[in-house]
Amino acid sequence: xxxxxxxxxxxxxxxxxxxxxxxxxxxxxxxxxxxxxxxxxxxxxxxxxxxxxxxxxxxxxxxxxxxxxxxxxxxxxxxxxxxxxxxxxxxxxxxxxxxxxxxxxxxxxxxxxxxxxxxxxxxxxxxxxxxxxxxxxxxxxxxxxxxxxxxxxxxxxxxxxxxxxxxxxxxxxxxxxxxxxxxxxxxxxxxxxxxxxxxxxxxxxxxxxxxxxxxxxxxxxxxxxxxxxxxxxxxxxxxxxxxxxxxxxxxxxxxxxxxxxxxxxxxxxxxxxxxxxxxxxxxxxxxxxxxxxxxxxxxxxxxxxxxxxxxxxxxxxxxxxxxxxxxxxxxx
Length: 332
Ligand code: BYC
Description:
Blueprint: H1 8-13, H2 18-29, H3 42-61, H4 63-67, H5 76-101, H6 107-115, H7 132-150, H8 159-187, H9 191-210, H10 222-227, H11 235-252, E1 263-265, E2 270-272, H12 278-288, H13 292-305, H14 307-331
Antiparallel strand pairs: 1-2
Bound molecules: benzoyl coenzyme A (BYC).
């Protein structure tokens, strides 16, 4: 939809012009926004399309593990809040697909990439939600990690992405608080409820720490995306900020983190943490996490079941177009 008014073809021919590249970089360095019809290096367009579309896919696939608990929420208040949260995530996916479309890739192409397994989505959504406490842990930890990663994206050099992120981050803050409040209620409840909260923290902690991506040494895209001010902080810096913010919150509600090496470092004023099992992240990203197959199957089914809606919308649009043409001809 947003791909129609773009000058994409002209841009591609000018892709490796050093003068244009220098002007582009100066624009970025001056903290000015790049807009859809501005000249941009093809590699900038490509990496942004990759990141924004993967982000959109993550929001959409991210609805599945929580959607699973809407009918089983323990009270009407919890159900209403969870319903609103999952709906927000659908909305985030839609803003993000719109932002990615302004770079010249259609929504249909992005869906195809997700459904064919070519495009990634966040590793975190390949873990199961076994108990109600998992809904608390997702809000507190996963949305907490998302906020840490996404607040700096509000200052991203690409205008449509930066603007989409402002609203998304406001909603993510509500998500994080509702999750923490669930964890706090459980942690202060019966011994069984506290054990449920602790079990959810045990299972979600390391996958949340891994959400920030590979270590800075291993990250393929960080150097260039930081130069282009898409990313403002490295994966490891954001991970450390997340750990520093989250550990005191967990301790405040009487929970323990599943990391014997977690220790406050008086010298650096940061929480030191244990070694990350990178083989797990690689495995989950490669499609072999606990729920990868189930998530993709659900997405494919949803896409197939929505086919009649897409066909009906296209048929209606065509009918209106034909009517307009007929009315124009009759008026001549
Ligand atoms: N999972 O060079 P690197 C949400 C991939 S939505 C899967 O460091 P980059 C929420 C990476 O794509 C959460 N793949 O990459 C929703 C790359 O592979 P490709 C999603 C990962 O882009 C609902 C390769 O590994 N948030 O929070 O510089 C409910 C090398 O990595 C992961 C976003 O998408 C991973 N965890 O940095 C609740 C935010 N990590 O693409 C919450 C926007 C890395 O070359 N995205 N990979 O095939 C970003 O900030 C960055 O893309 C990342 C990765 C930090 C994720």
